Amino acid sequence: MTEQASGSHHPQPRPRSGGPQSAPVEHVTGAQSLIRSLEEVGADTVFGIPGGTILPAYDPMMDSSKVRHVLVRHEQGAGHAATGYAQATGKVGVCMATSGPGATNLVTPIGDAHMDSVPIVAITGQVASKAIGTDAFQEADICGITMPITKHNFLVTKAEDIPRTIAEAFHIASTGRPGPVLVDIPKDVLQAQTTFSWPPQIDLPGYRPVTKPHAKQIREAARLITQAERPVLYVGGGVIKAQATAELKVLAELTGAPVTTTLMALGAFPDSHHLHLGMPGMHGTVAAVTALQKADLIVALGARFDDRVTGKLDSFAPYAKIVHADIDPAEIGKNRVADVPIVGDAREVIADLVVAVQAEHDAGRTGDYTGWWEDLNRWRETYPLGYDQPTDGSLSPQQVIQRIGQLAPEDTIFAAGVGQHQMWAAHFIDYETPATWLNSGGAGTMGYAVPAAMGAKAGAEGRTVWAIDGDGCFQMTNQELVTCALNNIPIKVAIINNGALGMVRQWQTLFYNQRYSNTVLHSGPDAPAQANLGTRVPDFVKLSEAMGCVGLRCEDPADLDAVIEKANSINDRPVVVDFIVHEDAMVWPMVAAGTSNDEILAARDTRPDFGDGEDD
């Protein structure tokens, strides 16, 4: 078992390791032991669907269990809900499924959580021990299948091992680099008689995540920061997972260096802060992308230099020295060689950096970034984010999302699907605090938004949760609205409905000579590109009403605010708003896949002019 991650998570309450305890011993079934163990580790919500092999675990839930079970409509919904719950609350999310197809339906959300370092525990039933390996009914080697996409997984072979396994699973998921852990339990193990006592003894030889950074590396990083002329703080999702956002603000204001926050780090640093340049990457702001390209020092905190940020790797930030701090040593040097590698928890790293930079200042060594900020401000002012209103009077998708953000109650959580609407939600909603932006970053999983919003709302009942979804994403997992309606989970869903797979269509517009092969969603191949409402299939308002939700539609800009305010006013049921938007809107800026970040387009055929010199 290896540590595979970036950013440390504040751990879930977990048992102490050590010798035997004096807790009373109870005689129970393996299934009862499982539910008791979940209660003891602090799991208050489980998303799942019963089936043959996991069925024994469902019976004890009826016996006044502290665990709330949310019966989803598809196991993928259970997995994404567990992820949304974890991202919104900072606790470990839990999902449960039966063997075979139940378990394999969890593979996508497990892979999604793995890519984004989200702490979830997936519990699956397995065929009886003697049947394993015989191709029994609904048998699948889920441990083997998920080995590459879990932080660790367990096949429990003895009922007495259940408490220890659950305790270890939660500990592994929530410490070091967070991530998904799978626990597979054969049916006969759940049915067996055993004893239960708590806390168990945790025994994880070799699993010792390094959290405290090396002092020499910290001092060297501080020295480089004060010597640099063009530094950038490149902030990733690990800063949020480490609960290090307060420390980040102190460091940024102490140094005066510009801050960029990745798609997974939105909210780690206030969007409104004068030091914030926005999001870097393929659809990042011109100022953020260019700052990284022109920097002479990049301080990467809980970020992994992924391809969506770097563009063509060998042309990324050619003048920059690299300070790379990460909880996962495997990330450091993986894509870009680090001049100063720092292994440690982001919160401890940043706190130590603050002290070291202050010591540099006290010794009279401070950075002079005056010329740098002149360039940054010029780029920021010349190439701000923006959009054009459609000339035909239809709704602008950017305006819809921007107004949802502006009219939403304070502390609203936004969960986005994947595609154009995801990028617009990243750009046109302001994120001032962490854990208010949930999305599928690394895996790019369409269908994430509705179940993730459901999980977030289940974990943060007092807060408003909006899912910003596309009509393509929505049709993958919208059945979980039934779950929301029946379980008093009143999320709000904005369908940004352009009648197409929008991001794919954008690529077809730009790179395939406007040959729109199989991207129209609301009508058949022989229908006109813009079918009227009477031929839209499905009718999202009727579909939402059939699932127990309030269904609304908006297609006139004059009605936009009133419809959003009506959605905000309904809090006893889920609300779905079908926003009919212009189909030709595109996401800008853009760096085409496989090209250098120097090739960024501020809009179609519009390349920013940064002057001739590398320092411009």
From TrEMBL:
Does the keyword Metal-binding feature in the UniProt annotation? yes
Question: Can you state which reaction this protein catalyses?
Answer: 2 pyruvate + H(+) = (2S)-2-acetolactate + CO2
**Which pathway is this protein engaged in?**
Amino-acid biosynthesis; L-valine biosynthesis; L-valine from pyruvate: step 1/4; Amino-acid biosynthesis; L-isoleucine biosynthesis; L-isoleucine from 2-oxobutanoate: step 1/4
Its EC number is: 2.2.1.6
Checking InterPro entries in the record gives: Acetolactate_synth_lsu, AHAS_TPP, DHS-like_NAD/FAD-binding_dom, THDP-binding, Thiamin_PyroP_enz_cen_dom, Thiamin_PyroP_enz_TPP-bd_dom, TPP_enz, TPP_enzyme_TPP-bd
Name all Thiamine pyrophosphate enzyme central domain ranges.
218-353
The similarity annotation says:
Belongs to the TPP enzyme family.
**Which PANTHER family does the UniProt record give?**
ACETOLACTATE SYNTHASE CATALYTIC SUBUNIT, MITOCHONDRIAL, THIAMINE PYROPHOSPHATE ENZYMES
Recorded protein name is: Acetolactate synthase
- What organism, scientifically named, is this protein from? Streptomyces rugosispiralis
